[in-house]
Amino acid sequence: MTAIRDHTKKSEYKTITFFCASTILLSECATWLWTLPKIFCALITITLFPCFVLSLFLWLNASEKERDIPFMGY
Amino acid sequence: MITALITSSLLGLLFHGIHRKVIARIQMRPGPPIWQELLHTAKFAFKQSWIPASASEVHYVAVVLLCIAIWSGALYVVMVGGSVLFLFVFYLLHKVVEHGIGLSSGSSYGKFGGIRSVISAASELPLFTTIVVIYLFTGTLKLSEIITWQSEHGMLLIYAFPAAIAMYLILLSKMHYGPFSIIESKELVSGNITEHFGSWRAGLEIGFAIKTVVLLSSFVLLFTGGHSWPVLLLLMFLVLVSLSFVCAFTPMLGPYDAVTLQSLMTGILVIYIIGVWVFI
């Protein structure tokens, strides 16, 4: 049950990560094509970048596994 | 913008690694490799993450998002040469973040760190006095216009040296392992960030990395003017190394000593401001 719930969460984090990344990239492209003012692009990026970072990390983390990734050395 | 954010995150983490390395070498230790903070953040990103039972869930996550968002906003202000008042606002918001990180966890160590963050609010005053001095000399608060003023009149570092020292103190108060780092001192384990682990800590590390780049670049731009990218990076690096030297040689102050010193600096600057106002 826990594994299923974790999997659902992981797919949610994946969706949020891709949504944030694609929106940021689209706004950057729109700015390059002069269809979106730079300030709007900045607002979108500043708002979505924190969500992108956290959702990416939560998507990548080892919560689906039994243990953490072991220490790999320096 | 996104390129700048990613570059700043990586550069800031590298700067944190250099900071640790310099401190270690001065203290006759080998120290970690300079890319240690990058590995550190990557490690946290892959760690299991959950929210402690004692924590306020929304608050616990929101402060991490806010930390990254405010310094992303500050980076944008520096990039476009916006008003330094915005930088002051973002700096004040960071105090909310520091306090919120500590209080949201429900841990005693975190709460003590958060409370220390509030009592060290005096560290904001030198920034305010710095802004006033810069305005008295240049007649503007826009970073781009301050840079233009310096290209015509010379570096503000020479004209307003006490203000530069005050801002240097601000940078010092935000550096890890510094004399003013009372909110994360080791008698509180890791202070306000004790209970933020895994992905949450990795997010905070990204926010703090952008913060370091913003503070170093704004110091260099405000007091030495505009430069090409390599020169700007070199000057940021030199300021960072000087801060590391101070951190390595200075013991961590007690909470009340830290507040007293910062208030004293503000008092001296207020006298300096009155002098500048009268004579300019």
Key features?
heterodimer, A: 74 residues, mainly alpha, 73% helix, 0% strand, B: 280 residues
Topology:
The complex is a heterodimer of chains A (74) and B (280).
Chain A (H helix, E strand, L loop, with lengths): L1 H31 L5 H23 L14
Helix pairs in contact in A: 1-2
Chain B lengths: L1 H25 L9 H11 L10 H24 L3 H21 L3 H12 L5 H14 L4 H11 L2 H4 L1 H13 L24 H27 L4 H21 L5 H25 L1
Q: Beta fraction of the residues of chain A?
A: under 5%
Question: In what range is the share of β-strand residues of chain B?
Answer: under 5%
**Average pLDDT of chain A:** 77
Q: Rough shape of chain B? A: globular
Report helical residue fraction of chain A. over 70%
How would the global form of chain A be characterised?
Answer: elongated
Find the structural class of chain A using helix and strand composition: mainly alpha
How many domains of chain A, as an integer? 1
Tally of extended strands of chain B? 0
Proportion of helical residues of chain B: over 70%
Rg of chain A from C-alpha positions? Answer: 17 Å
How many β-strands of chain A, per DSSP? 0
**Distance between termini of chain B?**
39 Å
Major sheet of chain B: size, sense and barrel closure?
none
Indicate the low-confidence ranges of chain B by residue numbers: none
Q: Biggest interface and its residues per chain?
A: A-B, 24 and 30 residues
One letter per element, helices H and strands E, the order of chain A comes to: HH
Biggest pleated sheet of chain A: none
